Amino acid sequence: xxxxxxxxxxxxxxxxxxxxxxxxxxxxxxxxxxxxxxxxxxxxxxxxxxxxxxxxxxxxxxxxxxxxxxxxxxxxxxxxxxxxxxxxxxxxxxxxxxxxxxxxxxxxxxxxxxxxxxxxxxxxxxxxxxxxxxxxxxxxxxxxxxxxxxxxxxxxxxxxxxxxxxxxxxxxxxxx
Length: 176
Fold this sequence. Notes:
By secondary structure, the chain is an alpha/beta fold. It is built from six helices and seven strands; from the N terminus they run E-H-E-H-E-H-E-H-H-E-H-E-E.
């Protein structure tokens, strides 16, 4: 089973993703971005602590922006939380926020292709969590528009690899 779970911020998508894997004997939680600086951002620290407190003790964690490698190194079921974090981290690494998209976007899509291949090869259950950012106002700044557009593309490509896509709104789950 491969599932993509999308929804707005604090919609309950991570909680639902975790609940789908509670019966699994081993889960690898993949945090696909740089480790958050929880010391400088108390709100972020609280969110990270809440997520960690919900995870069973037998789950392992991989924190890496190399999402394909993390999936390949994972044992058992995989929970990726979240693709928006991976995209942000990748754009950061490629210095893409202010650069020309044609200079860095091909590398981003190569990494996405490699991630999709790793997802396809994974034999266990895999759940990917992402944000749905295209249902609101058009961002004022270029970086917001670039992120929104690329995350929409990432979400579509990942959805093609999945058996199911779920939309979480206000804690309610809709199968798409």
